[in-house]
Design goal:
Elements: H1 9-45, H2 51-80, E1 89-93, H3 94-108, E2 113-118, E3 124-128, H4 129-145, E4 152-159, E5 163-170, H5 177-180, H6 192-197, H7 204-214, E6 218-224, E7 228-236
Parallel strand pairs: 2-4
Antiparallel strand pairs: 1-3, 4-5, 5-7, 6-7
Helix pairs in contact: 1-2, 3-4, 4-7
Bound molecules: adenosine-5'-diphosphate.
C-alpha cells in the first residue's frame, strides 16, 4: 500500500490570489460603470437641466470613462507581461531611456524638476525596452503625483559590476511604515480617494514589480513619511555584459 501525502498550500494560495484579483478587478470596473449609468440616467430624465449642470455631469461621465480605460489598459498590461518573448529583448542605453521618460513626464507635469545622474555616459542593458520604459514612467509619474508641486525627482543610474541600478527618488509625501510591505500588491493604495483623484487604481507598482522580476531583478523601497521615497531597481547583467 502506498500512501501519498501532498502539501496543497501553495495550490490554494494561488487559487485564493486569483479569486481576490478577479473580485478586485470586477469591483474597480463596476464602480465607474455605476457612476456613468447614474449620470446618464439623470441626463436622460431631466432634459431641461441648466447648461452648467449638464457640463458638470458630462465631465463626470468622461472622467469615469477615462478611469475605466486606464484600468483596462493596466489589466491588459498585467496579462501581457506574464510571458516576455525573448525576441523582445534588445540592448539599449538606459540613460537615453530615462531622458525620454523625462520628456514624456514634462507633458503631464510641466513644472516637475527632474535631475538625472549617471555613473557613465552609456549604460547598456539587455532587456525589453518598452517594458523598462513603462516601469520607469510609472515610478517617475508616481514621484510627481505624490509630491507637492513642483515635484523634485532624482533619477540615479549606476552601471555596477554585476547589475544595472536605477534609483528614483522624490521629496514627496512618503509612504507610512505600515503600508510599505503591501505597496507592491495589486490594487493596494494608501489613500484610495487621493489615488483615484490622480487617476490611479493601485496597479502601477505591481506592474513595475512584475516587469522587474521578469528580468530576474529586484525592487526595493525606502520611504519616510513627509520626507519622500526612493524606489531602487536592480537588474542583473548577462555574463557577456559584465
Ligand atoms: P496608483 O495607481 O494608486 O498610483 P500604484 O500601485 O502606482 O497605484 O501605487 C500604490 C500606492 O502607493 C499609491 O496609491 C500611493 O499611495 C503609494 N505611492 C506610490 N508611489 C509613491 C510615492 N512616490 N510617494 C508616495 N506614495 C506613493
Amino acid at each position: 500500500a502506498i500512501l501519498v501525502l501532498q502539501d496543497k498550500t501553495a495550490h490554494y494560495k494561488i487559487f485564493e490570489m486569483r479569486r481576490d484579483f478577479i473580485a478586485n478587478a470586477s469591483h474597480e470596473l463596476k464602480t465607474p460603470i455605476t457612476v456613468i449609468r447614474g449620470f446618464a440616467e439623470a441626463l436622460h430624465e431631466n432634459p431641461t437641466l441648466p447648461v452648467e449642470t449638464q457640463m458638470e455631469v458630462t465631465n463626470k461621465i468622461v472622467r469615469n470613462c477615462n478611469r475605466m480605460a486606464a484600468l483596462i489598459k493596466d489589466l491588459l498590461t498585467l496579462a501581457d507581461i506574464e510571458n516576455i518573448p525573448s525576441s523582445r529583448l534588445t540592448y539599449f542605453n538606459v540613460a537615453d531611456l530615462a531622458e525620454q521618460c523625462f520628456s514624456m513626464l514634462a507633458e503631464v507635469f510641466p513644472d516637475a524638476h527632474v535631475t538625472i545622474h549617471k555613473s557613465k555616459e552609456d549604460i547598456l542593458l539587455f532587456a525589453d525596452m518598452d517594458l523598462l520604459e513603462l516601469a520607469i514612467m510609472n515610478l517617475i509619474e508616481n514621484a510627481a503625483k505624490y509630491s507637492n508641486r513642483p515635484a523634485h525627482i532624482f533619477v540615479d543610474l549606476e552601471d555596477a559590476k554585476d547589475n544595472v541600478i536605477i534609483k528614483i527618488s522624490d521629496k514627496g509625501i512618503g509612504i507610512p511604515p505600515a503600508d510599505q510591505e503591501h505597496i507592491f500588491d495589486r490594487f493596494y493604495t494608501v489613500d484610495k480617494a487621493h489615488s483615484q483623484k490622480m487617476g490611479g487604481s493601485g496597479l502601477g507598482l505591481s506592474i513595475v514589480k512584475t516587469i522587474v522580476e521578469k528580468h530576474f531583478g529586484t525592487i526595493t523601497l525606502q520611504s519616510e513619511l513627509g520626507q519622500g521615497s526612493t524606489f531602487t531597481i536592480c537588474i542583473p547583467k548577462r555574463e557577456e555584459e559584465k
